[in-house]
Amino acid sequence: MGRADDPVAARRLALQVVQRLRSAPGVPGGFVAYFAGGCVRDELLGLHPTDFDVATSATPQQVAALFPRSRLVGEAFGVVLVPMSEGGPGGAKGKGAASAQIEVATFRSDGVYSDRRRPDSITFSTPEQDAQRRDFTINALFLDPLAPPEPGSPVNGRLIDYVGGATDLAARVLRAVGDPHARLAEDHLRALRAVRFAARLGFAIDPATAAAITQHASGLTGVSRERIGEEVRRMLSPAAPGWAPGARAAAVHWLTRLQLADVVLTDAPAASPECSRLAALPPSAGFPTALVAWLLDRHLGPAVASAQASLEPPRARRLITTVRDALCLSNDETDGLTAIVQVHHALLHAWPAASVAAAKRLAVRPGFAQALAVVATSAPDRAQAIASRVEELKVLGPGLAPDPLITGDDLIRAGFRPGPLFKRILDQVYDHQLEARISTPEQALSFARELAGPSGV
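Above: the chain sequence. Below: its structure as tokens.
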């Protein structure tokens, strides 16, 4: 797909590709070339896409001949990446000039999907046949950007619709192209794509399509966990411009309603189908935070009825391991998930009685801000009280996380024998520092000698 930061520039670069294909030398009338798929859908919705795909009658070899620096990334499926810049085809650009990789695909019909992911074979075909092999009607639209728009059209160009996608867009309905059972049998991941599109756009799912998704829900077990995880990341990622309000909660609603959630997460049966914590998160909350909110909703029940509930450590460890494997989480994602769950539990149970030092240590732990956002979804008053306390701690004594007054090297230089007590001594010295009981290296070293006793030096 062609991406540029500026949607106007992205469209202009994709238009240049269409123009070159349509004026190909030695080809009477040039090749047929249209904008295709999501960019057409988004323009019809009044959005401003930065990704543009081009569909054409030119074969991959013919596209490559017109754009010498292009890459045949999916020749077996008729896909070529064409580097474009505002200086023209080829990818070279001046400072500040927009550039993009435009995905150009040959019109095709697909053969059998024996691996439930990709067709075993393709046949180069016509625009109408190409539309028929796509997943959903709203993604099977073409636009001729060089033709004059029809009267009253919201887009600059002539819409080409073989499957009723424009009607479904107007009705805000997501519908499979043709037989929904056939579309899902080709690639069961389309069930999750349906959820993602419906949630992001605020669309309903056509009843026949929804029924087919539910019937084929168990088919997701045959889809790679990497692909499932990537779809869930997209559903739970921070809201982007154009997303419908509450898109993440809507995605979880559809996953639950269509009997996909248990297959996706492979965890224990949900305690509740509600997703009140997830719905209450700020749109900017990141993926691990949203995933924690969803897990708490599933396993603890509605937030209003369990404001003080959290995942106990043993249960949390088991659940995190399950979800890590189910979604193929990266090490960083797993660490983030773990940190948020642990701090969330501490904020609900340890924070009220925490000493100044313990509260300061907790306030600077990884995942604190994210865990506090989750607390706010079920206990907003408590979250506000915690946030106020943190502001007080910031100006109390040396602040939240001052540099230690002494280190292990200082203890060794002072004649301390390294051993198991080292960490305990340093921790207690630092706690005294956090609570402003000591404020100089000399006081810290003196307190360390008291803690070590005669045998520790």
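The chain has four domains: 1-170, 172-263, 266-400, 408-456.
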